[in-house]
Predict the structure.
Amino acid sequence: MSTPPATPRKRLPLAPLAAIAAVVALAGIGFLYVAGRLGDTPPSARTLVGAIEAAAGPHPGYRRAHSRGVCVGGWFEGTADGAALSSARVFAQDRVPVLGRLSIGGGDPHGAEAGARVRSLALQLRSDDGADWRLAMNSFPFFAVPSAEAFLEQTRAQIPDPATGKPDPARMAAVLAKYPSARAFRDWAASAPWPNSWANTTYNGIHTFVFVAPDGRRQPLRWSLRPRVPLVAMDAAARAAATPDYLAAEFARRLAAGPVAWDLVATLPAPGDALDDPSQLWPAARPTRTLGTLWLDTMAAQAQGVCRDVNFDPTVLPPGIERSDDPILAARAAVYAHSFNRREREIARGQAPEATGQEGPR
Protein backbone atom coordinates (compact mmCIF):
# COMPACT_ATOMS: atom_id res chain seq x y z
CA MET A 1 0.00 0.00 0.00
CA SER A 2 1.42 3.37 -0.95
CA THR A 3 1.56 6.09 1.66
CA PRO A 4 1.60 9.82 0.88
CA PRO A 5 4.79 11.52 2.03
CA ALA A 6 4.54 12.50 5.67
CA THR A 7 4.37 16.24 6.15
CA PRO A 8 5.87 17.78 9.30
CA ARG A 9 3.26 19.34 11.53
CA LYS A 10 3.28 23.10 11.40
CA ARG A 11 2.40 25.58 14.05
CA LEU A 12 -0.19 27.86 12.48
CA PRO A 13 -2.03 30.93 13.75
CA LEU A 14 -5.64 30.12 14.51
CA ALA A 15 -7.19 32.20 11.70
CA PRO A 16 -5.19 30.63 8.83
CA LEU A 17 -5.68 27.23 10.40
CA ALA A 18 -9.42 27.75 10.47
CA ALA A 19 -9.45 28.82 6.81
CA ILE A 20 -7.45 25.81 5.70
CA ALA A 21 -9.54 23.54 7.88
CA ALA A 22 -12.64 24.87 6.18
CA VAL A 23 -11.22 23.93 2.80
CA VAL A 24 -10.42 20.43 4.04
CA ALA A 25 -13.84 19.96 5.56
CA LEU A 26 -15.84 21.41 2.70
CA ALA A 27 -13.90 19.32 0.23
CA GLY A 28 -14.78 16.24 2.19
CA ILE A 29 -18.40 17.25 2.39
CA GLY A 30 -18.55 17.77 -1.32
CA PHE A 31 -16.80 14.54 -1.96
CA LEU A 32 -19.42 12.56 -0.12
CA TYR A 33 -22.17 14.68 -1.52
CA VAL A 34 -21.41 14.88 -5.24
CA ALA A 35 -22.75 11.52 -5.79
CA GLY A 36 -25.73 9.03 -2.28
CA ARG A 37 -25.48 5.35 0.65
CA LEU A 38 -24.37 4.42 4.08
CA GLY A 39 -25.27 1.26 5.83
CA ASP A 40 -27.32 1.07 8.96
CA THR A 41 -24.31 1.00 11.25
CA PRO A 42 -22.92 4.28 12.59
CA PRO A 43 -22.20 6.81 11.25
CA SER A 44 -25.47 6.63 9.39
CA ALA A 45 -26.36 8.69 6.36
CA ARG A 46 -28.75 10.65 8.53
CA THR A 47 -25.96 11.45 11.00
CA LEU A 48 -23.57 12.55 8.27
CA VAL A 49 -26.09 14.69 6.44
CA GLY A 50 -27.13 16.23 9.74
CA ALA A 51 -23.52 17.18 10.46
CA ILE A 52 -23.14 18.66 6.98
CA GLU A 53 -26.25 20.77 7.45
CA ALA A 54 -25.10 21.92 10.88
CA ALA A 55 -21.77 23.03 9.43
CA ALA A 56 -23.10 24.74 6.30
CA GLY A 57 -26.44 26.09 7.50
CA PRO A 58 -29.96 25.48 6.15
CA HIS A 59 -30.57 26.05 2.44
CA PRO A 60 -33.83 24.25 1.59
CA GLY A 61 -34.01 22.59 -1.80
CA TYR A 62 -30.30 22.89 -2.49
CA ARG A 63 -27.69 20.18 -2.44
CA ARG A 64 -26.22 20.09 1.06
CA ALA A 65 -22.74 20.43 -0.38
CA HIS A 66 -21.52 21.78 -3.67
CA SER A 67 -24.66 23.86 -3.43
CA ARG A 68 -23.69 26.38 -6.06
CA GLY A 69 -23.42 25.10 -9.61
CA VAL A 70 -24.79 25.03 -13.13
CA CYS A 71 -26.22 22.35 -15.37
CA VAL A 72 -24.21 21.36 -18.43
CA GLY A 73 -24.74 19.07 -21.38
CA GLY A 74 -22.75 17.50 -24.18
CA TRP A 75 -21.52 14.12 -25.31
CA PHE A 76 -18.88 11.45 -24.74
CA GLU A 77 -16.83 9.59 -27.34
CA GLY A 78 -15.08 6.41 -26.23
CA THR A 79 -11.77 5.01 -27.47
CA ALA A 80 -10.58 1.57 -28.51
CA ASP A 81 -8.53 1.42 -25.31
CA GLY A 82 -11.69 2.00 -23.32
CA ALA A 83 -13.56 -0.71 -25.24
CA ALA A 84 -10.67 -3.13 -24.69
CA LEU A 85 -10.77 -2.58 -20.93
CA SER A 86 -14.54 -2.60 -20.43
CA SER A 87 -17.59 -4.10 -22.09
CA ALA A 88 -19.61 -1.02 -21.12
CA ARG A 89 -21.53 0.21 -24.14
CA VAL A 90 -20.37 3.82 -23.61
CA PHE A 91 -16.95 2.91 -25.02
CA ALA A 92 -18.32 1.30 -28.21
CA GLN A 93 -21.11 3.73 -29.04
CA ASP A 94 -20.06 6.55 -31.37
CA ARG A 95 -21.48 9.36 -29.26
CA VAL A 96 -23.13 9.09 -25.85
CA PRO A 97 -25.33 11.98 -24.62
CA VAL A 98 -24.17 13.56 -21.37
CA LEU A 99 -25.98 15.48 -18.66
CA GLY A 100 -23.81 17.09 -16.00
CA ARG A 101 -23.23 19.69 -13.36
CA LEU A 102 -20.26 21.98 -12.73
CA SER A 103 -20.03 23.29 -9.18
CA ILE A 104 -17.86 24.65 -6.41
CA GLY A 105 -17.19 23.17 -2.98
CA GLY A 106 -19.11 24.32 0.08
CA GLY A 107 -22.69 24.44 1.27
CA ASP A 108 -23.48 28.08 0.48
CA PRO A 109 -25.49 28.39 -2.76
CA HIS A 110 -24.39 32.03 -2.97
CA GLY A 111 -20.69 31.50 -2.27
CA ALA A 112 -18.17 33.36 -4.44
CA GLU A 113 -17.11 30.96 -7.19
CA ALA A 114 -13.56 32.18 -7.63
CA GLY A 115 -12.90 31.83 -3.91
CA ALA A 116 -13.80 28.16 -3.77
CA ARG A 117 -10.74 25.93 -3.47
CA VAL A 118 -12.62 22.86 -4.65
CA ARG A 119 -14.41 22.56 -7.98
CA SER A 120 -16.39 19.60 -9.18
CA LEU A 121 -17.90 17.97 -12.21
CA ALA A 122 -20.66 15.37 -12.03
CA LEU A 123 -21.88 13.47 -15.09
CA GLN A 124 -24.58 11.11 -16.24
CA LEU A 125 -23.86 9.09 -19.39
CA ARG A 126 -26.75 7.06 -20.77
CA SER A 127 -25.85 4.71 -23.59
CA ASP A 128 -28.23 3.36 -26.23
CA ASP A 129 -28.63 0.04 -24.36
CA GLY A 130 -30.30 1.98 -21.54
CA ALA A 131 -27.38 1.65 -19.12
CA ASP A 132 -26.53 4.58 -16.85
CA TRP A 133 -23.06 5.67 -15.75
CA ARG A 134 -22.79 8.44 -13.18
CA LEU A 135 -19.50 10.01 -12.26
CA ALA A 136 -18.73 12.44 -9.44
CA MET A 137 -15.31 14.05 -9.60
CA ASN A 138 -13.46 16.78 -7.77
CA SER A 139 -10.42 18.94 -8.33
CA PHE A 140 -8.56 17.51 -5.33
CA PRO A 141 -6.41 14.46 -6.11
CA PHE A 142 -7.18 12.40 -3.00
CA PHE A 143 -9.66 12.35 -0.14
CA ALA A 144 -8.73 14.12 3.07
CA VAL A 145 -9.63 11.33 5.48
CA PRO A 146 -9.55 7.52 5.30
CA SER A 147 -13.02 6.60 6.55
CA ALA A 148 -16.63 7.72 7.00
CA GLU A 149 -15.98 7.93 10.74
CA ALA A 150 -13.09 10.31 10.15
CA PHE A 151 -15.24 12.34 7.77
CA LEU A 152 -17.83 12.73 10.53
CA GLU A 153 -15.12 13.97 12.91
CA GLN A 154 -13.92 16.39 10.28
CA THR A 155 -17.39 17.70 9.53
CA ARG A 156 -18.34 18.13 13.18
CA ALA A 157 -15.16 20.16 13.67
CA GLN A 158 -16.62 22.70 11.25
CA ILE A 159 -19.89 23.22 13.12
CA PRO A 160 -19.95 26.77 14.53
CA ASP A 161 -19.52 27.07 18.27
CA PRO A 162 -22.71 28.69 19.68
CA ALA A 163 -20.57 30.92 21.88
CA THR A 164 -18.56 32.45 19.03
CA GLY A 165 -20.57 31.72 15.89
CA LYS A 166 -17.42 30.21 14.37
CA PRO A 167 -15.87 26.74 14.28
CA ASP A 168 -13.44 26.01 17.07
CA PRO A 169 -9.97 25.88 15.41
CA ALA A 170 -8.77 23.51 18.11
CA ARG A 171 -11.22 20.84 16.95
CA MET A 172 -9.92 20.90 13.38
CA ALA A 173 -6.35 21.00 14.68
CA ALA A 174 -7.13 17.73 16.46
CA VAL A 175 -8.38 16.20 13.19
CA LEU A 176 -5.23 17.31 11.41
CA ALA A 177 -3.08 15.86 14.17
CA LYS A 178 -4.92 12.53 14.01
CA TYR A 179 -4.97 11.94 10.24
CA PRO A 180 -1.83 12.21 8.05
CA SER A 181 -3.98 12.37 4.92
CA ALA A 182 -5.78 15.43 6.33
CA ARG A 183 -2.42 17.15 6.72
CA ALA A 184 -1.42 16.15 3.19
CA PHE A 185 -4.72 17.55 1.94
CA ARG A 186 -4.09 20.78 3.82
CA ASP A 187 -0.75 21.08 2.06
CA TRP A 188 -2.35 20.43 -1.34
CA ALA A 189 -4.93 23.15 -0.66
CA ALA A 190 -2.19 25.58 0.30
CA SER A 191 0.11 24.95 -2.66
CA ALA A 192 -1.83 23.74 -5.72
CA PRO A 193 -2.53 26.33 -8.47
CA TRP A 194 -6.03 27.79 -8.75
CA PRO A 195 -7.26 27.28 -12.36
CA ASN A 196 -9.01 30.36 -13.71
CA SER A 197 -11.79 28.33 -15.31
CA TRP A 198 -13.89 25.23 -14.86
CA ALA A 199 -12.64 24.42 -18.36
CA ASN A 200 -8.96 24.05 -17.43
CA THR A 201 -9.51 22.17 -14.18
CA THR A 202 -8.66 18.49 -13.76
CA TYR A 203 -11.42 16.46 -12.13
CA ASN A 204 -10.48 13.26 -10.27
CA GLY A 205 -12.66 10.25 -9.57
CA ILE A 206 -10.51 9.39 -6.52
CA HIS A 207 -11.97 5.91 -5.93
CA THR A 208 -10.82 2.66 -7.46
CA PHE A 209 -13.28 0.98 -9.81
CA VAL A 210 -12.98 -2.32 -11.69
CA PHE A 211 -13.34 -2.49 -15.45
CA VAL A 212 -14.50 -5.84 -16.82
CA ALA A 213 -13.41 -6.55 -20.41
CA PRO A 214 -15.52 -8.38 -23.00
CA ASP A 215 -13.43 -11.50 -22.36
CA GLY A 216 -13.93 -11.25 -18.60
CA ARG A 217 -10.53 -9.81 -17.67
CA ARG A 218 -10.74 -7.48 -14.69
CA GLN A 219 -8.69 -4.29 -14.33
CA PRO A 220 -8.81 -2.02 -11.28
CA LEU A 221 -8.23 1.64 -12.09
CA ARG A 222 -8.93 5.23 -11.11
CA TRP A 223 -10.08 7.85 -13.60
CA SER A 224 -9.62 11.56 -14.12
CA LEU A 225 -10.89 14.11 -16.60
CA ARG A 226 -7.89 16.02 -17.94
CA PRO A 227 -8.66 19.32 -19.68
CA ARG A 228 -7.57 20.14 -23.21
CA VAL A 229 -7.66 23.81 -22.26
CA PRO A 230 -4.24 24.88 -20.90
CA LEU A 231 -4.01 25.72 -17.24
CA VAL A 232 -3.95 29.42 -16.37
CA ALA A 233 -3.55 30.03 -12.67
CA MET A 234 -5.53 32.66 -10.82
CA ASP A 235 -3.71 34.61 -8.11
CA ALA A 236 -5.20 35.88 -4.87
CA ALA A 237 -5.76 39.39 -6.19
CA ALA A 238 -7.65 38.11 -9.22
CA ARG A 239 -9.78 35.88 -7.05
CA ALA A 240 -10.61 38.75 -4.73
CA ALA A 241 -11.60 40.98 -7.66
CA ALA A 242 -13.75 38.36 -9.37
CA THR A 243 -17.53 38.62 -9.42
CA PRO A 244 -19.49 36.02 -7.40
CA ASP A 245 -20.54 34.24 -10.60
CA TYR A 246 -17.10 34.46 -12.18
CA LEU A 247 -16.75 30.78 -13.15
CA ALA A 248 -20.22 30.50 -14.68
CA ALA A 249 -19.82 33.69 -16.68
CA GLU A 250 -16.36 32.65 -17.87
CA PHE A 251 -17.58 29.21 -18.91
CA ALA A 252 -20.53 30.69 -20.79
CA ARG A 253 -18.13 32.83 -22.83
CA ARG A 254 -16.07 29.76 -23.69
CA LEU A 255 -19.11 27.80 -24.80
CA ALA A 256 -20.14 30.66 -27.05
CA ALA A 257 -16.90 30.02 -28.96
CA GLY A 258 -17.38 26.24 -29.16
CA PRO A 259 -17.47 23.00 -27.14
CA VAL A 260 -15.02 22.45 -24.29
CA ALA A 261 -13.25 19.09 -24.00
CA TRP A 262 -11.60 16.85 -21.41
CA ASP A 263 -9.98 13.46 -21.93
CA LEU A 264 -11.08 10.67 -19.59
CA VAL A 265 -7.84 9.03 -18.48
CA ALA A 266 -7.52 5.83 -16.43
CA THR A 267 -4.55 5.27 -14.14
CA LEU A 268 -3.60 1.63 -13.57
CA PRO A 269 -2.23 0.56 -10.17
CA ALA A 270 0.90 -1.40 -9.36
CA PRO A 271 0.90 -4.27 -6.87
CA GLY A 272 0.60 -2.83 -3.41
CA ASP A 273 -1.27 0.33 -4.38
CA ALA A 274 -4.29 0.98 -2.18
CA LEU A 275 -7.49 -0.16 -3.89
CA ASP A 276 -9.91 0.55 -1.04
CA ASP A 277 -8.68 3.85 0.41
CA PRO A 278 -9.18 7.10 -1.58
CA SER A 279 -6.98 9.00 0.88
CA GLN A 280 -3.96 7.10 -0.52
CA LEU A 281 -2.64 8.74 -3.67
CA TRP A 282 -1.07 6.48 -6.28
CA PRO A 283 2.36 7.52 -7.61
CA ALA A 284 2.24 9.80 -10.65
CA ALA A 285 4.36 7.39 -12.71
CA ARG A 286 1.68 4.72 -12.94
CA PRO A 287 0.64 3.77 -16.52
CA THR A 288 -2.42 5.41 -18.01
CA ARG A 289 -4.98 4.73 -20.75
CA THR A 290 -7.19 7.28 -22.49
CA LEU A 291 -10.76 5.99 -22.29
CA GLY A 292 -12.52 8.70 -24.26
CA THR A 293 -13.26 12.38 -24.58
CA LEU A 294 -15.99 14.46 -22.92
CA TRP A 295 -17.39 17.45 -24.83
CA LEU A 296 -19.61 20.04 -23.16
CA ASP A 297 -21.53 22.51 -25.32
CA THR A 298 -24.53 23.71 -23.28
CA MET A 299 -25.05 25.33 -19.89
CA ALA A 300 -28.17 26.32 -17.92
CA ALA A 301 -29.02 27.67 -14.49
CA GLN A 302 -29.55 24.84 -12.01
CA ALA A 303 -32.75 26.20 -10.45
CA GLN A 304 -34.85 24.93 -13.32
CA GLY A 305 -32.23 22.92 -15.17
CA VAL A 306 -32.46 19.20 -15.74
CA CYS A 307 -29.48 18.46 -13.49
CA ARG A 308 -31.21 19.85 -10.40
CA ASP A 309 -33.17 16.69 -9.70
CA VAL A 310 -30.43 14.20 -10.56
CA ASN A 311 -28.59 12.29 -7.84
CA PHE A 312 -25.08 11.92 -9.24
CA ASP A 313 -24.39 8.76 -7.26
CA PRO A 314 -21.00 7.39 -8.41
CA THR A 315 -22.06 3.83 -7.61
CA VAL A 316 -24.57 3.89 -10.48
CA LEU A 317 -22.53 1.94 -13.03
CA PRO A 318 -23.20 0.21 -16.34
CA PRO A 319 -22.44 -3.47 -17.01
CA GLY A 320 -18.68 -3.66 -17.56
CA ILE A 321 -17.78 -1.33 -14.67
CA GLU A 322 -17.93 -2.44 -11.03
CA ARG A 323 -17.35 -0.91 -7.62
CA SER A 324 -14.26 -1.71 -5.60
CA ASP A 325 -14.41 -2.59 -1.90
CA ASP A 326 -13.77 1.04 -0.94
CA PRO A 327 -16.07 1.68 2.07
CA ILE A 328 -16.11 5.44 1.48
CA LEU A 329 -17.51 4.89 -1.97
CA ALA A 330 -20.38 2.97 -0.41
CA ALA A 331 -20.77 5.74 2.16
CA ARG A 332 -21.10 8.35 -0.55
CA ALA A 333 -24.04 6.57 -2.12
CA ALA A 334 -25.95 6.54 1.19
CA VAL A 335 -25.25 10.20 1.93
CA TYR A 336 -26.23 11.28 -1.56
CA ALA A 337 -29.48 9.35 -1.47
CA HIS A 338 -30.43 10.71 1.95
CA SER A 339 -29.58 14.27 1.00
CA PHE A 340 -31.34 13.94 -2.34
CA ASN A 341 -34.50 12.78 -0.57
CA ARG A 342 -34.37 15.73 1.81
CA ARG A 343 -34.09 18.36 -0.86
CA GLU A 344 -36.67 16.76 -3.12
CA ARG A 345 -39.07 16.65 -0.18
CA GLU A 346 -38.48 20.33 0.49
CA ILE A 347 -39.12 21.15 -3.16
CA ALA A 348 -42.30 19.05 -3.26
CA ARG A 349 -43.62 20.81 -0.14
CA GLY A 350 -43.01 24.23 -1.62
CA GLN A 351 -40.32 25.01 0.96
CA ALA A 352 -37.61 25.85 -1.57
CA PRO A 353 -38.77 28.80 -3.73
CA GLU A 354 -35.24 30.14 -4.12
CA ALA A 355 -33.68 26.79 -5.08
CA THR A 356 -36.34 26.29 -7.73
CA GLY A 357 -36.12 29.78 -9.19
CA GLN A 358 -39.48 30.89 -7.87
CA GLU A 359 -37.91 33.88 -6.15
CA GLY A 360 -35.94 34.94 -9.22
CA PRO A 361 -32.16 34.88 -9.64
CA ARG A 362 -29.82 36.21 -6.94
In short: The longest strand covers residues 288-301. The radius of gyration is 19 Å. Residues 1-22, 33-40 have pLDDT under 50 and may be disordered. The chain has nine helices and ten strands.
